[in-house]
Amino acid sequence: MIITVTLNPAVDKTAISPGFSVDHVNRIGGIRLDAGGKGINASKAIQKLGGTSVAMGFLGGTAGTFVERSLAEMGIQADFVRVPGETRTNLKVVDSVNGTYTDLNEPGPEIGAAAVTEFETLLLSRAAPGDTVLLAGSVPAGMPDNIYAVWTKRLKSRGVCVAADLDGERLRQVIAEKPWLIKPNDEELCQLLGLPDMEISTLAAAAETLCRDGVENVVVSLGARGALFAGTDGVLLAKGPEVAVKSTVGAGDTVTAAMIFAHETGMNLPEAARLAVGAATAKVTREGSSPPEREEIEFYARYVRVSEYHGKLEG
After folding, report:
1. What global pTM score does this model have?
2. Which end of the chain is more exposed for a tag (fewer CB within 10 A), N or C?
3. Which residues are catalytic?
4. Strand ranges of the sheet holding 10-16, from the earlier edge strand across to the other edge
C-alpha cells in the first residue's frame, strides 16, 4: 500500500492572468480550483498511473471539505484528521504571455498537540511492512520541526519504505535517518549541501555521495533540463521532449509519484526514470495541479532520453 502524507494541504486556486504585472491592476481570464499539496498531488498522479494510495494529513473548515470531496470524486481514499481553523488556499498566477508562474501560499492552520498524537497513531497503525509512505511538503505551525525525521525512524523500524519530498533543515534531518528515496530539485539540493553551482555534474556527484551515505535513491528534478536518478547502480540523466508549458504546479510531485509507482510495480531504474520524466512532461501541459492521464504519460515517456551519467557506485 502507498500512503501519502500532506500535513498542510491546500485548495490550489489557479488564476490565468496574461501580461501579469506587479503593482498594477491585473485582469484574470480564468480560474480553476484543485485539491492540492505535495502528497495529495502525488496521490492524484498515482491514481492516474493505475495505482492506489491513501491520502492522509490534516483538514479544516470549508476548504478542507472541498479537498476531501474532490479526492472522493477522483476515487482516491482519504483518511484525514479534522482540526479547527481553515485549510489554506494557495493562489497560483499563470501568465501565458511572459511565461511566469507565481505562487502566493497561505500558512495554514495551527495544529494542536492532541491532533498530532491522533495523526501519528493513525499513520503508524495504517503503515505495514512493505508499504511505502511519502512524507511531503511543509509542516504547519504547532508541530515539532523534526516530526518527519521522527516518523521516518519509526516507520523504517516497522519495515516501511519512506520517501521524502522536503527541503531545508527538514530534509537534512530525514537524510540522517537514511530513507528509501528523496526528491529535491536542483536549487534545494544546492542550498542543502552548500554546492558551488547547479551544474549537472556537481548535482550528480552530490547525489552519488548521498547514496554512498545510505539514502537508497536520490532523484534531483532539473526543470527543463530533465532529472537525475541516483541509486546503488549509478546515476542516470533523463530528459523529456520540449512542450508548451501551461502550469508547473505539481510537476515535481508527479516525478515522486511515478517513482513510488515504479517501485511498487517492480520497474528497474531506467524504466522508472523514463516513466517519471514522461509523467512530469505530461503534467506541465495541463492547467493547475490536475494530473495527466495514463495515455498522456505513456505518449511522452516514449520520447524521454535516458542515459548513464556515471557508472556503478563504488565503496
Report:
1. 0.92
2. C
3. 253
4. 30-36, 10-16, 88-95, 100-104
